[in-house]
Amino acid sequence: GVSHTEAEAKAEAEQITVKDGPDDSGNYYDRPGKLSDYFPSPYPNEEAARAANNGAYPPDLSYIVSARKGGEDYIFSLLTGYHDAPAGVVLREGQYFNPYFPGGAISMAQVLYNEVIEYEDGTPPTQSQLAKDVATFLKWTSEPEHDDRKQLLIKVIGILGFLTVISY
Prior knowledge:
Mean pLDDT: 90
Subcellular location: Membrane
Distance between the termini: 39 Å
Shape: extended
Helix content: 25-40%
Protein name: Cytochrome c1
InterPro entries: Cyt_c-like_dom_sf, Cyt_c1
CATH architecture of the domain at 61-167: Orthogonal Bundle
CATH superfamily of the domain at 61-167: Cytochrome c-like domain
Organism: Drosophila pseudoananassae
Family: Belongs to the cytochrome c family.
């Protein structure tokens, strides 16, 4: 499920400063972030992104869960699936073996390890838990209105069911 209420998500978004504009005078200005803002890039430009990622330009992951077969399961498996390459598999410099990535050779290094963060509620910070959280978050970014649509569908089905019963 979703890990934050809308109010919590808004409060977290407001902690980031976003460059916006231009205003009426043609000037750009900084403002607190909103939920509808894109995530700021960790890189100043495409060249810096490629330099930090073995020449590969990292994709926008906003819709990756919807775009890949298996969705959240694919992301979870990819994040937890790093292994030593089996005999006979040759990797170029800067590549890692992950059987869940097409072809098995991926340029993204393993990013999740046990105990790299601390949860406020005491949840054990295992690699598996972190991968589950990332997959859940990416699912939410691809469909932030999912829960609202689901509730609306239940109401519509209830009303249609009621109308069907009283029409006979």
